[in-house]
Amino acid sequence: MVNLFARTPADNFRVMPYNLRLFAMLGLWGDRRKLYRLYALLLLAYVAIIFPKPVRITDRHPFESIVRSVSELIFAALCYLTIIILAIKSEPFRAVIRKMEQALELFRDKQDQCSQLIIEVNANIHRFSLGYAKLNLLYVLLFNVIPPIYNYPRYFLQWRMPEDNRTVEFMLPLMQDLYGLDVHHNIVHYTISWVAITPFCVFCALILWFKGALFMLIRYNTLLYQLVNRLLQQYDRESAGGLLAQKHRRLQQIVQLHYRAIECTKLLDSILSLILLIQCVGCLLMLCLMLFYITRNHSLNVINIAVLLMSIFIEMMCFSYLGNQLTEENANISHSAFNCRWYDEPIVIRKYFLRIILQAHRKATITAGKFYNVNIVTFAQLIKTSYTYYMIMKEMF
Question: Which residues cross the membrane (predicted)?
Answer without folding.
Answer: 35-53, 73-90, 135-152, 187-210, 271-294, 300-322
